[in-house]
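Hi support team,

I submitted a single chain yesterday and got back a structure, but I'm not sure I'm reading the token output correctly. Could someone confirm the output below corresponds to the sequence I sent? I've pasted both exactly as they appear in my results page.

Thanks,
R.
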Amino acid sequence: MNFIPKKQKFKKQQKGKHFNRVIGVNLLNNLHFGSIGLQALESSRLTSKQLVAFHFLINKFLKKIGRLVFLVFPHTPVSKKPIEIRMGKGKGNVDHWVAKVKYGCIICQIETRSIAFAVKALKLAKLRLPFNTRIVYSK
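Hi R., thanks for writing in. Yes, this is the structure output for that exact sequence:
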């Protein structure tokens, strides 16, 4: 299971502006689908491999007790030139896909009756992410 888009309008993209800046209010900073969630405390990139590891760990822990909803998806392709290739000759091939995660963004939400069980799952899953996160609860 990979998190890769099925269809893109363009095969390659430019990096875009610096995504560590926070502009305005992020719409993904409230819990809508679950009772507990994981919020990013830093801006970073999240690769599809990291998302898959995160997804498998939480589903293995939750089994059928809860429902997991992801709010981030890797839509941005990152290209890379092969090793020992001279400069020039155009842009490299797509190497992997990333999701740009901004500060304060909710990465995933879990809907379950057992909050303690979901907290354990999220604490284990936090180790799979390359940036600082915190666990948030619905009010």
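A quick pointer for reading it: Residues 123 and 135 are 8 Å apart (CA to CA). Let us know if anything else looks off.

Best,
Support desk
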